[in-house]
Structure formats: C-alpha cells, structure tokens
Amino acid sequence: MISNYRMSLYELLSLLVAAGGFISVVVSLYLLIKQTKIAQYNLREVLLSSLIDQEQEIDRLFVANPEMRKYFYDNIEVSKDSPIDYDKASAISECLLDYFATMTYNKNTNSNVFSLDRWERFMIDSFSNSPILRATIDEYKDWYPDQLYQIKQKAAINRSEAPVINEQKDAVTEESQKQEMHKNTA
C-alpha cells in the first residue's frame, strides 16, 4: 500500500543536511588519506636526505684523512702506540657508530617508510673490515641501540665464515689449475 505522505520542509531540509554531512565526511576521509600518503612520502624523503647528508659527511672525513681508510676498509688494527692515528680513528669510529645508530633508530621508528637493507649491508661490511669500529662499539655498548650490536654480531659471523669461503675458492682454483696443466701435458 502506497502512502501519500509528504515531507515537510523541515524534514526535507534535515534530510539534505544529513546527506551533505555524510558527503562531507567521505570527502574529508579521502583528503585525509591523500594527505597522509603525501606526509609519509615527505617523511621518507627527509629521512633519506638526512642519512645521505650524514653519509657524505663520513665520506668527507675519509677524503680529508685518507690515511684512516685502512683502519675501516682493510681490517688493519690501529696501534695505541700511534696516538694521532688512534685518536683520529677513534673519533671517526664514533662518528660512524652515531650514523649507524641514527639509521637503526629511523628503521625502528619509521619502519613503514624506511628500508634498512642497503645500509645494513654497509654496516655489516664496515664491522667486518674495521677492528677499531668493533672495539669502539664493544667499549661503549651502552651508548648504542641493541639492534646495532646485533648487526655487529652478524659481521662476526661473516668474518668467521670468510676463511672457509676463501679456502673453498682456493681449492677450486687449485683444481682448475691442475686440470689445465693436465690438458697441456696430454
């Protein structure tokens, strides 16, 4: 049965206001989502820019002090008997660890916008190749996040596996050389 009910002007206006309010909420939610995505992108860019700036600052330290590279890239220990080298290497080591701590902090607090993979590989390689870096984090472990110390532990595993890998490569090379010699004599 169809009713001949007519809305009053008040009811019609109330319905229009309610519909307008609903549309406003939907549009607001859309804009909020869009703003959040833009803010997330901007945050990621600021974080990456900051890390890249710090990375370049570390590079400048090595450009200004090329004699220090061997202590961070060639697995050479710096002697405490050489106070100038030791002090410089220690200072650079602390700068690197501060940089690494910033990276791990950003990963922990901004994991939805920040990937640590590339930098974690760099940190593992740095710990693997620098006795002064390992010694500094061991000496001042409480200064740095636990995650950074765990990355240092991954480097220790890499260092312990490295001789095995090198021995395997040497064995393969030696076998190849024997086969080549056998071909030449036959």
Short structural summary:
Helix 1 (9-64) runs antiparallel to helix 3 (83-109), helix 3 (83-109) crosses helix 5 (131-139) and helix 4 crosses helix 6.
Structural commentary:
With 186 residues, the protein is an all-alpha fold. It has one domain. It is built from six helices and no strands. The protein is rod-shaped, with a radius of gyration of 30 Å. 13% of the residues are buried.
Query: What is the helix/strand order?
Result: HHHHHH
The proportion of residues forming helix, as a percent range, comes to: over 70%
| Amino- and carboxy-terminal Cα gap | 107 Å
Number of domains: 1
Mean pLDDT: 82
- Sheet with the most strands? none
Net shape = rod-shaped
Oligomerization category of the chains in this entry? single chain
Count the E strands: 0
- Tell me the number of helical segments per DSSP (H or I, 4 or more residues long): 6
- Beta percentage is under 5%
Structure class: mainly alpha
What does the radius of gyration come to?
30 Å
Question: Could you name the ranges where pLDDT drops below 50 across 5 or more consecutive residues?
Answer: 164-169
